[in-house]
Write a structure and sequence with these properties.
single chain, alpha+beta, Urate Oxidase, 8-stranded antiparallel sheet, two-stranded antiparallel sheet, 6 helices, 12 strands, 34% strand, binds uric acid
């Protein structure tokens, strides 16, 4: 009889999302490398705020799906408690470090878990500024929420024969919304019977940007050695600086330039990747006679365009040659 084809590994996981963790007075993140594009130097971590997601994987969970046998189920409610309890135990300074710490604790505690995937979005609380007789200074007690862009992290830890292995790891910053009112163009694209878009030599380029990065050595992303840690705030500042400096012919070229600068500043990274959206405003009035360069725009109508691209150190080497 012919051999049966090997059955593909089935999808199977369960977990908890939106585990909101607010840890106060975590260890400050200090001693990061300074870069020319950013004045960012420290996260006080007076509030380390995170929205965490956890998924557990393993063959041991099969009977819970097929038989309704819950005897090996860690209730997702207990997962939430586990994460919150360990937020008090964590002695490090980064969300990446916290995810790694909790993942390891889960695998230690429940030997039937084969792999655990955790991800998080950080809420950057910013201290409010107080005006005093000697100038303005930051409050160390009152913080405001509401900055759009958020640092992210995701990792998967697998149980190996002798040790735990990091199956994947990525850090990022999401929801960076940037508009450049002049100095961007888009022309030279295919013109055929489907083309209605006029060429532009100076468009108001509005982009939504998510940027992600991976380390050569996963542990560098935990922040235990702050000189190796890449801060989302610095990556954001690089993206903003390049957007200001480069008169881009397209979003494609713009994100490539941002990626190269990030890899130049942080050689500990093996990849930077992008998801970008084009939200360029629609021009209503191209000229306002009384207002010099003034124009009037409105939000674009759907649909929107997008790009995905990753940049690696080989791109830097190729350009050096
Ligand atoms: O930067 C851009 N890249 C494109 O591929 C594209 N396509 C389009 O219609 N507008 C733009 N802008």
């Amino acid at each position: 009889m012919a051999n049966k084809p090997a059955t593909a590994k089935r999808t199977m996981y369960y977990g908890k999302g939106d585990v909101f963790v607010y840890r106060t007075y975590a260890k400050p993140l200090e001693g990061i490398k300074n870069i020319p594009e950013s004045s960012f130097s420290c996260r006080s971590n007076i509030i380390l705020g995170m929205d965490i997601q956890v998924s557990l994987k393993g063959e041991a969970f099969l009977s819970s799906f097929t038989e309704g046998d819950n005897s090996l189920i860690v209730a997702t409610d207990s997962m939430k408690n586990f994460i919150l309890y360990h937020a008090g135990e964590y002695e490090g300074a980064t969300m990446e470090g916290f995810l790694a710490f909790v993942s390891e604790k889960f695998l230690n505690k429940y030997s039937h878990i084969q792999a655990i995937e955790m991800s998080g979005r950080q809420f950057p609380f910013k201290e409010i500024t107080l005006e005093t007789e000697s100038g303005s200074e930051g409050s160390n007690k009152v913080f405001k929420e509401g900055i759009l862009e958020k640092p992210t992290a995701t990792m998967e830890l697998e149980r190996g024969d002798a040790e735990y292995n990091v199956a994947s790891q990525q850090s990022g910053i999401e929801e960076l919304h940037l508009v450049k009112v002049k100095g961007s163009s888009f022309h030279g694209y295919i013109k055929d019977e489907f083309t209605t878009l006029p060429e532009t030599y100076d468009r108001p380029l509005f982009i939504y940007l998510n940027i992600y990065w991976k380390y050569h050595v996963e542990g560098d992303g935990y922040g235990d050695d702050p000189t190796k840690y890449v801060c989302a705030e610095q990556v954001k500042d690089i993206a903003q600086t390049i957007f200001h400096q480069v008169d881009s012919p397209s979003i494609q070229k713009l994100i490539y330039e941002i990626g190269k600068r990030i890899l130049t500043r942080f050689p500990q990274l093996k990849e930077v990747s992008f998801e970008s959206n084009n939200r360029t405003w629609e021009t209503i009035l191209d000229e306002i006679p009384s207002s010099g360069e003034g124009k009037v725009f409105t939000d674009p109508r759907p649909p929107y365009g997008f790009q995905g691209f990753s940049v690696t150190p080989e791109d830097l080497e190729r350009e050096e040659d």
